[in-house]
Amino acid sequence: MKNQLHFIIALSVVLFVLELIPTWATAQGDTTWVSTYTWEAQNNPETNYDSPGRRWFDFPASDNGEDYRKVLMYHKLKCFDQGTAGGLGYACGEWDYLSYNYLFDHTGLLDSANLTHPLYRINNLDFDIDSLVFMPSEGVPFDTVLTEYSRTVLSEVGPFTTSVLNGAVSSELFVSSSEGKRVEMVWSAEELIEMGVETDVSIRRISLPVGMIEADLLTLECRWSDNDWMTVYEFPTNASGMLIMDLSEVLVFDGISDLSVSMSFEGLVGDVCDAVTSPGNVVLYHSMGGYIEFDGGDKMEVAVDSLSEISSEVTLECWLNGDSDWLPANTTIFEGVNSNNQREVNVHMPWSNSRIYWDAGYDGGYDRIDKLSNEDEFEGSWSHWAFTKNAETGIMRIYRNGEVWHEGIDKDNTFGDISEMFLGAAFNGNNSYRGGVDDFRIWRVALTEEEISDWMYFSDVQNHPQLSNLAAVFNFDGVNGAFEDSENNSPYGGYCFGNAGRVKYRAKDLFLNPEVPGGDAGSLKPALQFTQGDEDAFESTSEFVTHTYAQPIPPVSVSTWSVAGNDVEWLDIAYGWPHDLLQVTYNALGDTLTTYAIEGESVVYTNVELNYFGVPFEVIDRVELGRYITPYGINLSLGNDGWTWIYDVTDYLPLLRDSVELECGNWQELLDLKFAFIEGTPPRDVINVEAFWNGTYYLNSWNDNVQSHQYTVAPNEEMFRLVTRASGHGFGQGNNCGEFCYNTHSVLVDSTEHWSWEIMQECADNPLYPQGGTWIYDRAAWCPGAPVATQHFELTPWVVGQSTFEVEYDVTDDPFGNYRMEGQIISYSAPNMSHDVELMDILSPNDRKVLSRWNPVCENPVVLIRNNGSEPLEQCLFTYGVAGEEPQTYEYIPEVPLQFLESVQVSLPYDDVAYTQGDDEYLMAFQVSVDLVLDDDQEPSNGTAHTLFRRPPTWAYNDLDDNRIIVWTKTNNAPYETTVELTDRNQNVIWERGYTEANTIYRDTIELNSGCYRFTVLDYGDDGLSFWANSDGSGYVRFKKVAGGNFATLEDDFGKSISQAFRFETNLISDVEDLVPVFDTAEVTVFPNPAQGSVRARLEGFDSEVKWVLRNAMAKELQSGTFRPSNGMLLSFDMSDYAVGMYSLEVYDRENRIISWVIRE
Asked: Residue 38 class from Cβ within 10 Å (0-12 exposed, 13-18 middle, 19+ buried)?
């Protein structure tokens, strides 16, 4: 269903724009506005501050009979004022992230993919030829672990005591025969005292009266109260009458601590032992099964028949023990999808950022809650996790070990039919989990915290209060090579792909299905006896034994597949072992001692490809309208009204009609996106948009992936333009490509190069400053907090008259880095007009924030015009002025006539006092119109515009009786980088200076007449007077009054430069004399340039010893020194060891400072 229409027709464009849109040059002509993404929709806790995402919007109808001469996209950002970006603590997102503006063109054409799938998959992998053994000659293969155990044997030679609790009875509960058994008990301080256990005397032996007992391994672990467990005895056992365990670590009773004891047996054969009553202080575990171990590349397909009734509530729970050698990583513990492969349930456990994500319910998108976890919560030990959702209450929760760990509200997406469900990986087999899983259960109800905590330790849920809502249970108690089915206590069906194996718990690790021996009322525990004595009361000897533990090797799956319509399905699955499998004997350290091959008849599988066509799908072309890089958001404010960047998207007009699907922005900032459709005649009609290069392309394989593109000309296409957008990413290796490396890009048409340019872009002059990161560093076609550079190449002169042509995009090779690349060819009609001049923008005066580096201004207005006619533009007449004042005129004649679509900036002489003289608090309007002089303008609506602006501030003393300003400058550690200058409104320099001393305060008093001035601070290091990421230190510039106080203080983290226009009022008149420029006629000539090895520099105009510094493009100092230029001597240095790229040579003395660029090729 389409969204409601979001347009407003503005018959009075000026009034509408003043209310809603930050203007550029607001032009004449009726305008239709389309509102798409809004701040309010995203800045909403009810949507969890969701990113803008992929949405449908209604645009002007294609049959509305209107012509639009221009379409502008207003990309407006501001920081969150509820919550924070991504919930990460900053109102604006912390990092410089890519932000795409995508349009999805639904062509209406159908296509289907020619797909292949192997007939067989072994171990969930493709293969050509392989063999499996299904019945090994010696039974199930196994690896053997040899562990050497030792025990202490004590002989009594002195006084000792043995403490016994009276009232013992004989019991079969604890040492009767079992594959494995563990009893955990507590001996309270009161019991120990009652038995006669002495304080501060070492317990050296623990004994238990038995009938008879044998065990492959007996492990005894103890701890006092809440201290850590320690193993005090571990050895095979064979005893009758009395089981004696001489301790490897003594225990000392302090008189107040309880003693916890865990006694476990593997391979137990026995009958009875003495037991005493112990209400509430004992629990017994039997070896009743195992768990499944996923080691990557495995998954279990869950039969979904029983999941069909899941609608508004669900619980999925299991025990997990993540692999600490692998996690955190991108993992999925389970995922269920509907018939359209859309996610209905999913848990990332965790993702590589250690966040745990719980997704549930699809309705155009899924509900999600997530939280950052600690590594000990998801790896290295068993934890119980439960994930619940109730769409009626809107509550999603994550429980850990029976307690609420995280929750979210307003999550009301219900569940569709789950057609596929997988455990251990995503439905497509990606994001494999690594670790153990046990007791995986799915319920058709959101269990309560009490229900989860009461039942999480029990595998048998036959008496569970929600048994009627049980949808699936998998306890993994069967044998390897068998399905999860009713014979294995998992009646809901599960099929393992890969080599996921069921693993038996070691006895000392048993923790599920606890029981109270003897019942709650009369619980029993083994009647342990504690022998104490001093060290000299016993003589000790040691015994050693090598214990053998066999670990069965799980088989691998072999699945057989067939084509079923537009998909494949598996027909059969079996389990065997690779024919070349080696069974390994290890020691306890994991060292391989011996290996021996598996034996048995092999079955050979020869694979073939199954060919089929996938489900037909609509061809949807993704077209990028523009790209943006988010700013560094720490401590950044975009203001209550945000910042707006305006994109000209007229080339995409045929796609911006009717219902349009967009995907724009990201979660870093709030996005408000509007489109302005300005009526009128366009310079030429857009016929077609063809997008081809679109994706991430790596420099080390550029030529293989960015192939030349051939375009076939349609009959009604007359003119053509190539649009490219390439932003470089990746650094830290080699030349720091592609983000920070100098790289030549070029475009070829029919194999002939026509354009070539250096990709690096100046960032230190970004109007959005300062930012919270390295915003000043030049980057490859982008800057943080700015649009990515778009290149437009007019192809028409090179392809006119051809039926086909070919374009190619080349980049300098590099082994590292990548470019996010977009390439499009736009085709047009012939020009619609012979004569038309368009007023594109009023650059100054203008209150638009992206022009704030220069505005407000004292200087003449500057406008941008373009020739939209096919005939050259030779002359035009401007009429302009502050609204309400007498307009002025200026006739402009370009030095060279403007050709079709050629643009130029024009400075308009203007001397009205209202322009700069007066209050700066209120917005004023500046109006401009332009007309042709020699011909009639065929589209007059595009020649008139106005902007809003503020005057520069006025500085004055109270009685206008002083004309002095103090320029108060504190230099940083790099004083030679800084210069200052004062210019009048005609841009004449009336005062300037540089600085030589670091960390020094300079006070310059200047006398000024009344007038409008601009003060500019330039930093030749492009890092301002203060920048956090270098060692230049900090400085500042202030404009102070003679009697104290400031006229203004400039931002010190300004990058390349900062300027302040101001009007100065005084009753005094002074002689203003130019300061002798700091930089004289000194010159530095570098040769050879480009260079590969030795470089020389000729220094002229320096009168004394100079200092020189060679830096790379990241401003890192590589070489430095001093040099005295005399008798024609040349400064020389070597660049042989440096990477290809741009370098700067700085030469300076007290009077001069010169920076020259050196290219290493």
From this structure: middle
User: Distance between CA atoms of 1105 and 734, rounded to whole angstroms?
Assistant: 35
Summarize pLDDT for 734-755 with one digit per residue, the tens: 888 999 999 999 999 999 999 9
Check residue 521 and give its pLDDT: 64
pLDDT tens per residue across span 769-816:
999 999 999 999 999 999 999 999 999 999 999 999 999 999 998 999
- For 861, the token pair is 């207005």
pTM: predicted TM-score of the whole model, two decimal places: 0.65
Beta strand pairing call for 744-749 and 752-758: antiparallel
The dihedral region occupied by 476, where left means phi > 0, alpha psi between -120 and 50, and beta the remainder, is: left
Task: Tell me whether the omega of the peptide bond preceding residue 715 falls within 30 degrees of 0, making it cis.
Answer: no
DSSP 123-149: TTB--SEEEEESS-TTSS-EEEEEEEE
Peptide linkage before 738 cis (omega within 30 of 0): yes
In sequence order, the β-bridge partners of residue 779 are 761
Over the chain, what is the mean pLDDT?
A: 91
CATH topology assigned to domain 837-941: Immunoglobulin-like (2.60.40)
| pLDDT score of 490 | 57
The CATH topology of domain 151-287+515-545 is: Jelly Rolls (2.60.120)
pLDDT tens digits, one per residue of 3-29? 332 322 222 222 223 233 334 445 556
Cα–Cα nearest to 976, from 1154, 765, 777:
1154
Picking from 740, 754, 739, the residue whose alpha carbon sits closest to that of residue 810 is 754
- At which residue do the structure tokens 């012939």 appear? 830
Mean pLDDT of 888-902: 96
Q: Which of 47-56, 288-297, 609-618 has the lowest mean pLDDT?
A: 47-56
Neighbours of 1046 (CB within 10 A): 11
Could you tell me if residue 256 is left (phi over 0), alpha (psi between -120 and 50 degrees) or otherwise beta?
alpha
Give, in words, the CATH class of 955-1065.
Answer: mainly beta
Model confidence pLDDT, tens digit, residues 461-518: 999 999 999 999 999 988 888 887 755 555 678 889 999 999 999 999 999 999 999 8
d(CA 420, CA 417): 9
DSSP readout, 407-418? EES---------
Q: The domain 686-830 is classified under which CATH number: 3.20.10.10, 2.40.290.10, 2.60.120.230, 1.10.287.1080?
A: 2.60.120.230
Domain with CATH 2.60.120.200 in the chain: 292-373+381-401+415-504
The highest-level CATH class for domain 292-373+381-401+415-504 is mainly beta
> CA quadruple 1050, 1051, 1057, 1059: dihedral positive or negative?
negative
Q: What residue spans in the chain does CATH classification 2.60.40.3080 cover?
A: 1083-1160
Task: Retrieve residue 191's tokens.
Answer: 């019991």
Fold of 1083-1160: Immunoglobulin-like (2.60.40)
C-alpha 105/C-alpha 117 separation (Å) is 30
Domain 1-106+619-682 architecture: Sandwich (2.60)
| Largest Cα–Cα separation, the chain | 126
DSSP 3-state assignment of 891? strand
Burial class (CB in 10 A: 0-12, 13-18, 19+), 606: exposed
3-state secondary structure of 66: coil
996 touches 1036 (CB < 8 A): no
Contact residues for 132 (Cβ-Cβ < 8 A; gap 6+): 122, 556, 558, 576, 577, 578, 579, 602, 603, 605
**pLDDT single digits (tens) 1093-1150:** 888 888 888 877 888 899 886 677 899 998 888 766 788 899 888 888 878 898 888 7
The answer to whether 106 and 618 have CB atoms below 8 angstroms apart is yes
- Residue 795 in tokens: 């192809």
